[in-house]
Backbone:
């Protein structure tokens, strides 16, 4: 099956700093990538949809200036959490699909802890 | 937007028994319904999916049924094994647009020996 990687797997940072998370599709070209956030014992909540070469579409309530998304190529999307605060601590997961009708394949997730 | 409800939130079964998880969705335009299995701290893994042009799909011990009229779909796991223990999420999307998945709230399945 399709493989999606994410880096880093874990990151601990101080409040006020920025953190960049990378999502890569390793064996297919992803026209669309999605970013989710998952709090403990909760479901996955979509943050934004990212299409290669265009601006990301953010879900209601997600601050686009705080969560910067770049989808510069068909195999790479990045999420930058700017000026991170403890309430941003969460499990961030990306997914990728080759087309709008194709299955979404998930990355292994990034555990962000903001001190 | 789409809203997906999932029941039960927790489910305990004896090894070898069957497990059924049910989901309902609100948007009649949704036409793709995947099920994901997630172990603690790991990525969601697609276990089966169904599109709106069929009513049932089976893959070994796992089956999914879809009732478009009632807007509900169910996951059936037969002959459960301890390694089936995990959190299961249903989801729904409309593939004619951006294919954004709306997830259910999850079901913690525990298969007891």
Residues:
């Amino acid at each position: 099956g399709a493989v999606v990687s994410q880096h880093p797997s874990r990151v601990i940072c101080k409040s006020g700093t920025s953190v960049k998370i990378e999502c890569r599709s390793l064996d297919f070209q992803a026209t669309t990538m999605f970013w989710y956030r998952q709090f403990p014992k909760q479901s996955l909540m979509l943050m934004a949809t990212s299409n290669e070469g265009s601006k990301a579409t953010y879900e209601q309530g997600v601050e686009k200036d705080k969560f910067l998304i770049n989808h510069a190529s068909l195999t790479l999307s990045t999420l930058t959490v700017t000026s991170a605060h403890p309430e941003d601590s969460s499990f961030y997961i990306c997914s990728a699909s080759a087309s709008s009708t194709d299955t979404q394949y998930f990355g292994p997730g990034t555990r962000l802890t903001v001190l | 937007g789409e809203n997906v409800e999932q029941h039960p939130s927790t489910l305990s079964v004896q090894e070898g028994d069957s497990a059924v998880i049910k989901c309902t969705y609100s948007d009649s335009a949704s036409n793709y319904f995947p099920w994901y299995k997630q172990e603690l701290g790991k990525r969601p893994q697609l276990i089966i999916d169904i599109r709106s042009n069929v009513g049932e799909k089976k893959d070994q011990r796992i089956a999914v049924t879809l009732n478009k009229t009632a807007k509900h779909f169910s996951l059936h796991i037969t002959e459960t094994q301890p390694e089936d223990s995990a959190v299961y999420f249903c989801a729904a999307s409309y593939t004619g647009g951006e294919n954004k998945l709306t997830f259910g709230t999850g079901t913690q399945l525990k298969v007891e020996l």
User: Anything to note?
Assistant: Chain A touches chain B through 24 residues (CB under 8 Å). Chain A has no helices and eleven strands.
